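Q: I have 169 residues here and want to know how they pack in 3D. Can you give me a structure?
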Amino acid sequence: MHGWDWFGLHLQLYPPSEINLPEGFPTARNVEVMKLFGFNFTVPKQFDLVVLMMTKCPNLCELEIVPKEFIPRDEIEAAAKSSIDPEYGFTDQDLGTLKTVKMQSFRALRLEILFVKAILLNSPALEKLVIQESPYIDALMASKTARKMLCFPRASPKAQVVFLEYKSP
């Protein structure tokens, strides 16, 4: 399923693989909870769409990202080799009402790490950032990435970063 589903104060997004960012996207003041399904951090245009959506939802309180289950190794390797500016994303945006962010299946991809950094830098009301590791990340990489992200500066003095190990169902 691709497209938009509006449910009261909730927005669910299933991003298509090919994205053309809309011009003059309207502000959605009534969206408080956003859930992104099938998101792929190896596709910069999907990242751009998330940034656009977050900045156009000024009352956003909760964000949950459920990534695409399988990402081919060649896409991951290409993303790792790409030159992405560390300031890429929404470094100037104030996400003043964002309190909770949940990220599932975290693989420590470059855009994922930049996303976490931007969330911490731009969310003065952030209370909790929960990161569930992917079954496809090794323990050493997960540990190194967690230590690195715990050192990121934060706009909210009370922001907690919680890392959860993958547990098979």
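Q: Anything worth noting?
A: Confidence is low (pLDDT under 50) at residues 1-11. The longest strand covers residues 33-39.
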